[in-house]
Amino acid sequence: MRNRLLPALPALLLTLAPSIGAAQTALQLRWELVGDSITNDWGASRAAFTLTNRGAKPLAPTGWAIYFNALHSALPGSVGSGFIIEDVIADLHRLAPAAGFAGLAPGASIRIPYLAGLLLNRSFVPQGPYIVFDDAKDVGVPLNDYVALPFERPPQGAGHDPRVVTPEHQFTLDSATRAIPASELPPVFPTPVEVTAGAGALRFAALPPVEAPEALKNEAAFAAEYLRPYFGTTRKAGVPPLRLEVGPVEGQTSPEAYTLVVDSVQGVHLVGASPAGVFYGLQSLRSVLPAPTPRAGLVLPAIRVVDAPRFGYRGFLLDVARNFHPKPAVLRTLDLLARYKLNVFHLHLTDDEGWRIEIPSLPELTAVGARRGHPIDSDRHLPPAFGSGPAVDRPWGSGFFSRADYVEILRYAAARHIEVIPELEMPGHARAAIRAMQANPQYRLNDPDDRSVYTSAQGYHDNVMNPVLESTYRFIERVVGDLVTMHREAGVPLRHIHMGGDEVPGGVWQGSPAVQTYLKAHDLTSVDDLWFVFYSRVAQILKAQEGGLLPSGWEEIAVRKTQRGGQQTNIPNPDFAARGWRAYVWNNVPGGGAEDLAYRLANGGYDVVLSPVSNLYFDLAWNENPEETGLDWGGYVDLRKPFDFIPFDYYRNVRVDPSVFVGKDRLTDYGRAHIVGIQGNLWSETLGGEGRLEYMMLPKLFGLAERAWAADPDWARERDPAKSESLYREAWSRFVNVLGQRELPRLDREVAGVNYLIPTPGLRAEGGVVYCSLELPGFALRYTTDGTDPTVRSALVRGPIPFRGTVRVAAFNSTGRKGHTAHLTAEPALSTPSGR
């Protein structure tokens, strides 16, 4: 009964809002970054709220508070003007009046300065503010008149970290790129094993017949779909065929191998070692198709391609738990993965901030765990996070995949030869599930008498499942069973399931009476031993499923805590390696001590998926410039980072002091066989807006695709540093020219509204003129000198620009979409470091 009434709650709250006073709807809130002040080793930023009363009644001195989400809170003791800023939970904070605030008269404003941790870009700006009055504490009213002023970081003094990439520095970076004529670019991406140019060209005057056995019906439909824009449905006799078949591929053992032959007389012949191989051959054929020209037919160069992937696992993770992304966004993402021959979609379905998959037998998981809003202590939803605001059932904060949605996603992926691996985060990162199940004793996930004190990495104190409760394992068994049933319904049997395992904080379980009783009964000395109790039971549950499931988890599932030289360290745990666990290793931050963890685990017998934060965390900001979005705790990830990643020797491509790798393990031949693949991860804390997904995903995805499919490049095998650098520059030039001149324009033609990142130009002033550069050739550069921002009508950059006043330059793609603007100012200084 309670669940059926839930949808009516937001409407009820909105009808109550006018009765709690008019002042809250007439408040204006502004936020601005005032400047950076280096106050400690990490730095801090000076920021300020300005609150203005636009109403006819005064705002009372007490009895209200403004809630907002922000990645950083106020530093203790730094808030001025008679206010306090308190941490509520995780990224939710509370601004409230304190002694000294006398209220706010109509038309009056008050500025509230404070210090916060270093604010790097607009992802760190306070979001989703709403006001709550003490006489209606369950009602949160959005402050719709809220603006965060443009994120401009002032120039830093000598010795300070500028936290920007200047136009001059970007120009230097771009100098590694050589423009290559389109006719000289490699025809297929990612780089195939072998490409041979043939004689002549194949001409199609009409849609070619697709000849394929019944087993390739799906692939034949894709082939017709790719070719239809060139001919419509027009068919003529005598047109050479497109023949698809399954058969051996000479010299290749991969089941995803293929041979593609385009012959000027015989037509197109594609042989795959499996239907997947045929599908990837069709993607290569697609990459040589020119832009459609009305009534011109289709001309293809004669070519022979023999190809197979380097890794059998080529993955991409999308987090839909922190901020939800609905089914259409997921299907669109699957299409992008398929284009570039990625074959695993790791779907992060659950976390502290959301449970995003319907489990029909446990409806409270989505009735409670898939919804966010105010009040924050409600048993009917989770609190606001990442700016989702007070209203329940709003996009991004609330939402889930129904059973039918998930089945459709599975079938859509399978048609594109992509395996969907669902992830259920546990035992940590589980607050959504814990809160949803706390009223159901049969499936309760926490001990109600637990008094443990802990704080997770994201600021939660109650987000870890209890590993000694039988109800915990009944819950896991029920959820896994329902997932297995959904996969069976889709005709896509579940083979791998990811069971989380990361970031369980110290202090958990210590204060649980149930845990203490269990430890004594089983003669265990430490709560650390419960880790192995928990995952042993999880493994049993998975093994008992039809056909047995292969378990996977983050790196923590594969390690055991111990002491080495008086320091706590992690060593490979041999127990789970022998059981076939697969470890996803993300932690390789230089200087953090775990640089070699992936190699140690592989050498110890674990199958390892490399998903390092240093190179393949796509949620990290592109660079330091404040107009970019994303996090920076693991550095920055631009296009170069995934391109530079060398899976079997990633020490050599990390551009840091090489001494951090002294004494670190190297990958053995045995360990090399246990590196099953690589994966890019896109976490969604900063993706609460339309279009951000693709902006953070592309063009970084191209570097992942190249490294997952193609063998090590020649520059990575060359041991002579000078020769390696020369080879690298040439490989980089080929790569960015293929992207800028061919792949991105193709996406512009074929994917409506695709929102990839357009690079910011580099600029250099010399001899009274400004020279321009761009990381990706193929875009139009336009400029202004009158102080306005460039538009599609602005002058094209055709050479050096006379340096007068302020020169502003931006890149535009083939649809006229604009990237960020770079500028240089002639007076009073030769340049400014803003990069905007």
Structural overview:
25% of the residues lie in helices and 22% in strands. It is α/β, with parallel strands linked by helices. Strand 11, helix 4 (217-231) and strand 12 form a beta-alpha-beta unit. The model is unreliable at 1-23 and 829-836 (pLDDT under 50).
Structural class: alpha/beta
Strand order of the largest sheet: 20-17-16-27-26-25-22-21
Residue share in β-strands: 15-25%
What is the mean predicted local confidence, pLDDT?
91
What labels would you give this structure?
34 strands, alpha/beta, 25% helix, 22% strand, 836 residues, eight-stranded parallel β-sheet, disordered N terminus, disordered C terminus
Write the layout of secondary structure elements.
Blueprint: H1 2-5, H2 9-16, E1 27-37, E2 44-53, E3 64-69, E4 83-89, E5 92-97, E6 109-117, E7 127-133, E8 141-142, E9 146-148, H3 167-174, E10 194-204, E11 210-211, H4 217-231, E12 242-246, E13 258-263, E14 267-272, H5 275-288, E15 298-307, E16 313-319, H6 327-339, E17 344-348, E18 350-351, E19 354-355, H7 364-369, H8 403-415, E20 419-423, H9 431-437, H10 470-490, E21 496-498, H11 513-521, H12 530-543, E22 550-554, E23 559-564, E24 567-572, H13 574-577, E25 582-585, H14 597-603, E26 607-610, H15 613-616, H16 640-644, H17 669-672, E27 675-682, H18 692-697, H19 700-709, H20 714-717, H21 721-750, E28 762-766, E29 769-773, E30 780-784, E31 795-796, E32 801-802, E33 806-812, E34 822-825
Parallel strand pairs: 1-9, 11-12, 12-14, 16-17, 16-27, 17-20, 21-22, 22-25, 25-26, 26-27
Antiparallel strand pairs: 1-2, 2-6, 3-5, 3-7, 4-5, 7-8, 10-15, 13-14, 13-15, 18-19, 23-24, 28-29, 29-32, 30-31, 30-33, 33-34
Helix pairs in contact: 4-5, 6-8, 8-10, 10-12
